[in-house]
Specification:
With 450 residues, the protein is α/β, with parallel strands linked by helices. It has two domains: 32-65 and 346-449, Alpha-Beta Complex (Aspartate Aminotransferase, domain 1), CATH 3.90.1150.10; 69-344, Aspartate Aminotransferase, domain 2 (3-Layer(aba) Sandwich), CATH 3.40.640. It has helices at residues 8-15, 23-29, 55-58, 67-79, 92-104, 118-135, 156-161, 186-189, 196-214, 240-250, 272-275, 303-316, 329-344, 347-365, 395-406, 428-449, and strands spanning 34-38, 41-44, 49-52, 111-115, 143-147, 178-181, 219-224, 254-258, 282-285, 297-301, 371-377, 380-385, 409-410, 412-414, 417-420. The protein is globular and about 70 Å long. The relative contact order is 0.14. The model has no long low-confidence stretch (mean pLDDT 97). Its EC number is 2.6.1.96. Pfam families: Aminotran_3.
């Protein structure tokens, strides 16, 4: 990219500190500046149009340019642009959305607390797990189990629960209360000659052995994404979630299901907990709750979780937590309308109906000589690349991602996987277009290596 002085790209380099990049490299290359969006497409400042194969950051369920959300935001801005939920005060949109979330939850739930991002929501859930243990007089029951390759955010607590080295290195993380168990990805961690059933049994044993080693009386909660997103779209093997829940119930350990990516239709069910028969104590949601048109997230908790916390707040006089933007009226109004549209247009059903075509398209791409395998569920999936001999880890997927962008498709490379998570509004024809871009990109990368 040629950086023109005083252009928007040059000003970006001059003034913005970007997340998830090599900052020195960014100073030299700059980034792609997106100017507009429509449906599943976005357009950059040069006028080039792309299929947004990642729905932004796994999140824009309704695609770009949904006028109903803009109209609701404008109306709420004019009526009540801001109010809080502190100190015995609240407002209509947060009440309405909380009621809707309780009614649509995959298992019986009790209360909703709003935050602004998935990281904040997981951080709050962590604090509340500790608060609850203190309320029950379990002063030592504070450890939290995350998983290798799990992702739960970038705050100090949520990054500590995360099991990705890039979110720990040089940040002095993870905190010492956070421990990690095996990643349930058979394609990455299955042993030679080991069946998927044997793999599942082994990693479940790893979990129970970890609990016994640390002491069940010291472990408060287990965190898990039903499908691991930022780790590379890692789908669980058969029997995994049933086995995890049996172990957690045996040792009285809470289950926190992180549905920040999976929630609101991504797996072909309203919640991935339904897809995998997960019964959490805490459900963490964000992203598709508002299609990311407004920053919004929530934790949804059951009565087993809530009641000790309420008792403790009564004992000490206050639940001493809150964010300025918790339950922001514009964000919750947009979230409410977004979920209504998902239901009205049967976008959960759309994901279920298109699953076979989507996964079939990925499987076809996996037949390419550069590819290794594919995986996914609903409308979230990944194409695993074969590592290049003598190259750095992840180079193959990075090259394919760059080639896809040249072909007019934005997706995301994670290790050797190319990840896809298109808007839920995508059509069968658009899936064909998306994977045609990938096929051309694969051939382009292969030709460059020939």
């Amino acid at each position: 990219m040629t950086i023109v002085p005083n252009s928007i790209e040059a000003r970006d380099i001059a003034y913005q500190l970007h997340p998830n990049v090599n900052l020195r490299k960014y100073e030299k290359t700059g980034g792609l500046v997106i100017e507009s969006g429509d449906g599943i497409y976005v357009t950059d400042t040069s006028g080039k149009r792309y299929i947004e194969g990642m729905a932004g950051l796994w999140s824009v369920a309704l695609g770009f340019g949904e006028k109903r959300l803009a109209e609701v935001a404008k109306a709420q801005m004019e009526k009540l642009p801001y109010y809080h939920t502190f100190s015995y005060k609240t407002h209509g949109p947060s009440i309405d959305l909380a009621e809707m979330l309780i009614k649509m939850a995959p298992v019986p739930m009790s209360k909703v607390h709003f935050t602004s991002s998935g990281s904040e929501a997981n951080d709050l859930a962590c604090k509340m797990v500790w608060y609850r243990s203190n309320a029950l007089g379990l002063k030592d029951k504070k450890k939290i189990i995350g998983r290798v390759k799990g992702y739960h955010g970038v705050t100090i607590a949520s990054a500590s629960i995360t099991g990705l080295p890039r979110n720990h290195e040089s940040f002095d993380l993870p905190l010492d209360r956070m421990i990690h168990t095996s990643c349930p990805s058979y394609v990455h961690f299955g042993l030679e000659g080991e069946s998927e059933t044997e793999f599942t049994a082994r990693i479940l044993k790893d979990l129970e052995d970890l609990i016994l080693k640390e002491g069940p009386e010291t472990i408060a909660a287990f965190w898990g994404e039903p499908v691991m997103g930022a780790g590379g779209v890692l789908t669980p093997p058969a029997g995994y979630w049933e086995g995890v829940q049996e172990i957690l119930n045996k040792y009285d350990i809470l289950l926190v299901a992180d549905e920040v990516i999976c929630g609101f239709g991504r797996t072909g069910k309203m919640f991935a907990c339904e897809t995998f028969n997960i019964k959490p104590d805490v459900l963490v949601v964000s992203k598709q709750i508002s299609s990311s048109y407004m920053p919004l997230s929530a934790i949804i908790v059951n009565d087993r979780f809530y009641q000790p916390i309420a008792d403790e707040s009564n004992r000490i006089g206050v639940f001493g937590h809150g964010f300025t933007a918790s339950g922001h009226p514009v964000a919750t109004a947009v979230g409410l309308e977004n979920l209504k549209i998902i239901q009205e247009r049967d976008l959960v059903g759309n994901a279920a109906r298109l699953e076979e075509k989507f996964l079939g398209g990925l499987a076809k791409l996996a037949e390419h000589p550069l590819a290794h395998s594919s995986r996914g569920v609903g409308l979230i999936g990944a194409l695993e690349m074969k590592p290049w001999e003598g190259a750095a880890a992840g180079d193959a997927a990075a090259a394919l991602s760059a080639a896809c962008e040249e072909e007019g498709l934005i997706c995301r490379n994670v290790a050797e996987a190319l990840c896809f998570c298109p808007p839920l509004i995508i059509t069968a024809e658009q899936i064909d277009d998306m994977f045609a871009c990938v096929a051309r990109a694969l051939d382009k990368v292969a030709a460059a290596r020939a």
